[in-house]
Amino acid sequence: MAGRANRSKSVLVAADVPYTRMLLKQALEQQEWAATTAKDAHEALVKLQTSAPDLVIIDLNSFDNASEDLLMKARIAGHRLPVLLLCTLLDRDLLRRVANVAPVGVLTKPLNLDNVKALLPAAFGPPDQFLRKGIELSRYRPTTSDAKDTYGATQTVEEAISESRIDEDRIQKMFGAMPLLPHVVARILQLSGSDESTVKQLSDVVSNDPRMSGQLLRIVNSAYFGFARRIATIPEAMVILGTQAIRNLCLGAAVSSFFGGKSRLLDRMRLWRHSLAVATAARKIAERAGVAGAEEAFTAGLLHDFGRLALERHLSDAYSKAIEKARSEQVTLLQAEVETLNIEHAWLSGWMAAKWNLPGVLCQAMAYHHTPERANETDRVVAAAVHLGDILAHLGGLAGVEDVLYDVEPNIYASGLLRFDLDEVQDIIPEVQAETAALEQQLSVAMGSEG
Ligand SMILES: [Fe+2]
Ligand SMILES: [Fe+2]
Known about the structure:
This protein folds into 2 domains: 2-165, 3-Layer(aba) Sandwich (Rossmann fold), CATH 3.40.50; 262-450, Orthogonal Bundle (Hypothetical protein af1432), CATH 1.10.3210. It has helices at residues 2-6, 18-30, 41-51, 65-76, 92-98, 113-119, 127-137, 157-164, 168-177, 183-190, 196-207, 210-220, 234-241, 243-256, 268-289, 294-303, 306-314, 316-329, 333-341, 345-355, 360-367, 380-395, 412-417, 422-425, 428-450; strands at 10-15, 34-38, 55-59, 83-87, 90-91, 104-108, 140-141. The radius of gyration is 24 Å and the shape is globular. α12 (210-220) packs across α14 and α16 (294-303) packs across α22 (380-395). Strands 2-1-3-4-6 form a 5-stranded parallel β-sheet, sandwiched between helices. Strands 5-7 form a two-stranded parallel sheet. The protein contains 25 helices and 7 strands. By secondary structure, the protein is an alpha/beta fold. Residues 274, 278, 304-305, 390, 400 line the site of one fe (ii) ion (FE2).
């Protein structure tokens, strides 16, 4: 590791103050490290793609939404780059927000170049060391002035880190244990559109996967559809039901297997039904608003709470505490997850999507289905549709987890983007309920076959 640290590196510096950019650039170049600069989060994201840096330094007006946004996007986009954050105030709240986005280092301002130079090599060592050394070199305040702090002001750096960070090992184990998304699903997700060549490719992909084609033929020949004669091939099924329906049935069949098995913690069938409802509602909302991405909204809706499923399956003890907390203290499960596990299931869903190499729009919509304003500009509309679809599903009695509070207040940003007025769209709810029930019934054949 030490050898690697000494080699010349390329660094992306995102700072809104020109003087800071210049100072950092000079300091890095003195170390013979190449520096590229960006004046805002947008430019930094573009340069992140084009300059392939080894490290990112973010100083965008202390640590505000733009910095957090950039940090999360870099992470969600699958870049596992070390990030050094420069901030005005380093306290528990900030640690809480950044510690899981490892490897991350922090330094308080005013900028001290000696500290920057001392800290940079740690960026390429163990993630914990980067954060630890950064805190040592910073002025760390254990509590914020207005926080209702129950831990007292004597908390050490050591305590702050361990409390702020979800155990990396656990996360790694969790992902190691998570079933892979079948290859055929990833292929189907890459094939969007309805031109002739896509239809042909989709048909080939499904036909060439014996398990998937078998499942699909069982579904289309089930009593639900009640066709007079047997449908024997995938191309025939596509002609009769349409490409889009086949695509969604394939995805649904593959995804349903993740929701199989019994759990003492939560009713997985319920979470599955909720996923179908959000998929259906998100597509309807996008269609109604006349925006592009209705099918992506469906797919992202189907997968949006995967993070919750992962937490339930692989961190079940901790997750049961979160559910208990939500029920006993009457807070939302989202809030209880963050307070208990220090992780948000939506972010985890997005992370998994990135791990599975799903298209960027799905990663974004999954990661930000509770905070659509934080999604990429191009993908925001899909994230907003899933967010609003989630609310409609809850209002229609199709919540994913029993007896927990859910915030049904639509995000203002999402409402504006999709011209969504809760009073006006209430009439969609019965349609969502009916279509969810139909889809569930169609897919039950596949679910049954999974055992
Ligand atoms: Fe969610
Ligand atoms: Fe949800």
